[in-house]
Amino acid sequence: MNHRNESKNPAFAQRFKSARLHADLTQQELAGQVGISQAAIHKLESGQFGSSRKTVAIAMACRVNPVWLETGVGEMLPFQDKGIEEDSEEGAITGGTNTQLGFVEGELDKMIHTLYALRNQVRRLRNRQRARTRCRKDASQEADATTNTENDVGS
């Protein structure tokens, strides 16, 4: 079976391609903006890579919600239809009333909270994995010690 072309995360790949097309960027243009190769962009888009350390930079370049891009949670374009625009030259948010800007701040707070929750979940999973590895190692060492003791007694 050829594992090279199997998709590791097809949902991420689809969101990734949607984000790039939304930004009207070629793979090469996006690669240049975020500092990775066009081949890496292709692999992300085809699902050969599950995600990237550059996901936030990619989301910013594509002007989409980074939490949505990474996890599928939330809206792709959290600020659309809110009367808030981005100055393409400066990359700054322009327009909008205090209420609209308050909405943006609230949405950013939600995204940050979600990212922290995801980070903590990853840390818990890593700690569980380390604990399981230690238990297996301890059990293996205990089994070896028992075998050695039995061999010593039998000699």
TrEMBL record:
Residues 127-155 are annotated as: Disordered. InterPro entries: Cro/C1-type_HTH, Lambda_DNA-bd_dom_sf. It comes from the Bacteria. SUPFAM superfamilies: lambda repressor-like DNA-binding domains. It holds the Pfam family HTH_19. Residues 16-69 form the HTH cro/C1-type domain. Residues 143-155 have a biased composition (Polar residues). This is HTH cro/C1-type domain-containing protein. It comes from Candidatus Magnetaquiglobus chichijimensis.
